[in-house]
Amino acid sequence: MSKINFLKPDKSNLYTFLYLGSFLFFVSVLDVLLNSFFSLNLTGFLPDFLSFLLPLILGFIGLYFIRIELSGIKQLDLLNKHINTNNFNAVLSLLIIFIILKSIPPILSWFFIDASFAGDSKDVCTGTGACWTYIKVWIRRFMYGMYPNGEQWRINLSFIALALLGSVGYFATDRFKKYLTLYYVVIYPFIAFLFIFFFISGGPVFFDFSYGIIAAILSIIIGFFIPSKFKFYYFLIVPFALYVLLKYFIFYEELIELGKLDGLNWVETGAWGGLSLTFIISFFCLIFCFPIGMAFALGRRSGFPLIRYISIGFIEFWRGVPLITVLFMSAVMFPMFLPADFFIDKLVRCIIAISLFEAAYVAEVIRGGLQALPRGQYEAAKSLGMGYWRMHIFVILPQALKLVIPGIANTFLALVKDTPLIFVVGLLEIVGMLNLAKTNPEWLGFAMEGYVFAAIIFWIICYAMSKYSYNLEQKYKTDR
Amino acid sequence: MNFKLKDIGPQLMTVIAVVLVFGFFTYNAQVNMENRGIDFGYGFLSQESSFDVQFSLIEYDGSHSYFRAYLVGLLNTILVSVIGIILATILGVLVGIARLSPNYLINKFAAFYVEFFRNIPLLLQIFFWYFAALRALPLPQDAEAMFGISFLTIKGLFVPAFIWENFNIFFYSIVAAIVAIIVIRTHAKKVQENQGKQIPVLLISIGLIFILPLLSFLIGGVRLSFEIPVLKQLATTSFRYEGGVSLPPELIALALSLSLYTATFIAECVRAGIQGVGKGQKEAAASIGLTPNQVLKLVVMPQALRIIIPPTTNQYLNLTKNSSLAAAIAYPDLVLVFAGTALMQTGKAIEIVSITMFTYLSLSISISLLMNWYNNKIAITEK
Fold it and tell me: Is residue A425 in some structural domain?
């Protein structure tokens, strides 16, 4: 057996170093473990300073001893490769292990062990842990805002129905696949709007706008029987004619009477709130900002200088200002720009503002995709005799959009994370409701629980979205 | 000139549409303002504001003008943005490098940090720090001193104030040191290119930046003393610190959450930048005999920076714009002071919102111009 040099661990005394090193390392971890879980201080007899640093020193020496290259033991080599490459890394690894060990007990006890779950008043929350009773009592407010308790089934029903309708794409057979884009871009948002208007808001069954809807549906149905030669003119004239006919000549009074027979109570948008409002706003802004952004992205790359400059101005303006001032504008400045008797609902104004704001970001992302496409694609499409729109719809945009899936997903994530800002105009989604609940005199002092709860919800939503976008990116990745 | 209808048509229609929309808006605005008896104009800026602001970098009270209030808000916005940018850059670069570490624990720790803070809305984080975390701090009378001179309490952070004598001499000495360092660096580069000699620039620079200011203390007559915050009892249960510099909790919460949030994005930029430098570059550099430090300094970083800077600039802009969330926790920034209080008092919605937006717009554009200039400077100059 060769002489042992403790400053230079080597392979010849492998097991001596291995046992000694692991022993020291485990002692140091054990010390921290006991200290944090059972509040036992093994090294309490030493001076404070030394007792504090001792685990680190012991662990460091231990890791130093077992840092033997090519030891032949698989686990040891893996350990050395991953957390123990040199002195600096060893210290950092030790620190991270200690931090994790130290932080697990307080977090566990706050979340579960000392937390109160039972009961329905503040009195049960006497422990040092979290008061989940607070969340339990307020959960309806956090989810539905000020929406009346008895009517909340309407929100649930609409969301479940919309989720089911939204998942149609997964079950569509190949025969219907080609209609999916049309479905998601035109029909689905329209159905969503109807659900929100009739169910969540409880709007009258017949209002001015319904004539337009009836006219549109009727004209589309008749449109199938019109020869394609006349279709353009048909759709130019007939829907408007039908609308006017319906509204001013046929059963106007009767329908207004019918409209008053609605069974659902009207719930004004000011009462909406909580997580459901977050979903509603995100959903509509998502739908609106995408086509607007696409239009401005195309505009920015257009050959017409005036259209290009207008697009650049639009994009740079919205990208240069914070969302909060945009919402301020929609709240205090926008009503000044409208005729005095013309009123737009607060929620609608908000959705318009956020959509325009995010559209500028979407436009820049899409522009990136358009620029990344090789010139050959444009030239090939042109050489086939395609016009501007045909070229973009069938050749350019499908490829460009595929390229920018991550960027668009990031923009949408930012949109979801920006929705809490609507507190500026007095709409209270989940964060706003938390702030309201926290000032309730009966439930003072539970701010932490509320924010942690909301943070978990948002984190799950955003994390799921980012993972989903990653999957999409992998799915549509095509090699060039 | 031969105009074609095909070229003019779409443009003309767009312009007409834009003009119509704007015309409609301005017409309505005029009618509305006439009906309500409001007159348009920026004259109110010189009127007395008659409201107070909690925290201000320049002297301000109710007797000053609205323009002064605007300046107070603007300076506060800039202050929190600058603090946030500095902290976020330091943290972001550290985390970005940690994301690339071969050490499994560090790597996962950094990844956890990024995924955690990136996926929670910034407003929620600000609220969390302000209403939940900082409210758990001790009252002024119970606070323990940090390093014996600073106090972190529920009322904010109190740090010693610097009291300078002959500050301008000290300032000049620093400027002189920086100028000298730049001169030496250019000289060293020239020497190295011409003769191949290496001058230890780093050592000389460190020496200069310490020695020149030190000289100003020894012979320039510069004196520095500290004013340490002292606890004063105002009433039986009311205490406060006097003297020193106080940072309000709003500022701390805002700067903290802004930098924690933005650092995650900067970390991803840094990671992407360093990963973007091809492996061959590092191997080529190593094969011509550069040391690992030289590889990093001369080969990897210059190329990585070129990838890192544009998206990082975007993040700085985002941070500056996000600092407007200050309004939610009553930190007196531009939005709260000007678009909030001043708007309430004057009712000049169009003027005030337009000034606020224009200010942010010019802040954004100036930062992006600055960064574009820098970006162009370090971009590859192809020969």
Answer: yes
Q: How many interface pairs between A and B have CB atoms less than 8 angstroms apart?
A: 153
| Residues A244 and A292 placed together within one structural domain of the fold | no
Closest CA to B259 of B364, B155, B113, B380: B113
Name the region of B148 (left: φ>0; alpha: ψ -120 to 50; beta: rest): left
Encoded tokens for B342: 């001043």
Q: A456-467 burial, b if ≥16 CB within 10 A, otherwise e?
A: ebbbebbbebbe
| CATH of residue A379 | 1.10.3720.10
**Structural domains in chain A (count):** 3
Q: Can you tell me whether residue B151 is helix, strand or coil? A: strand
Q: Which of residues 390-449 of A touch B (CB under 8 A)?
A: 413, 416-421, 423-424, 431, 434-435, 438, 447-448
Task: Indicate yes or no: CB of B360 within 8 angstroms of CB of A459.
Answer: no
State whether B353 and A325 contact (CB < 8 Å): yes
Q: Which amino acid is at B168?
A: N
Claim to verify: residue A233 and residue A320 sit in the same structural domain: no
Adjacent-strand bridge partners of B146? B150
Shortest CA gap A205–chain B (Å): 32
Tell me which chain A residue has its CA closest to the CA of residue B338: A325
B361: nearest CB among A83, A317, A452:
A317
A89/B353 CB distance under 8 A: no
Q: Do residues A105 and A239 both lie within one domain?
A: no
The torsion of the CA quartet A361, A365, A368, A370, rounded to 10 degrees, works out to: -110
Q: At A162, which amino acid appears?
A: L
Residue A369 forms part of a structural domain: yes
By residue range, what is the domain housing residue A243? 204-263
CB-based contact (8 Å) between A112 and chain B?
no
In chain A, residues 130-189 whose CB comes closer than 8 Å to chain B: none
pTM over 0.80: yes
Token output for B173: 């000495």
CB contact under 8 A, B104 and A83: yes
Q: What contacts B312, CB < 8 A, 6 or more positions away?
A: B89, B92, B266, B269, B270
Same domain, A234 and A276: no
CB A405 within 8 A of CB A476: yes
- Which residues in chain B have their CB less than 8 angstroms from residue A328's CB? 335, 339, 353, 356
The Cα–Cα gap between B238 and B258 comes to 32
Q: At a CB cut-off of 8 Å and minimum separation 6, what does A337 contact?
A: B24, B25, B26, B28, B29
**Domains in chain B, CATH or no CATH each:** 66-160+228-378 (1.10.3720.10)
pLDDT along chain A (480 residues), means of 10: 66 78 84 79 72 81 80 79 81 88 85 78 75 82 81 82 82 76 79 79 65 76 75 74 73 59 69 86 88 90 85 88 87 80 82 91 88 85 86 85 84 89 85 83 81 91 88 74
Q: Nearest C-alpha of chain B: how many angstroms from A221?
A: 32
Same domain assignment for residues A259 and A271: no
Q: Do B102 and A85 touch (CB under 8 A)?
A: yes
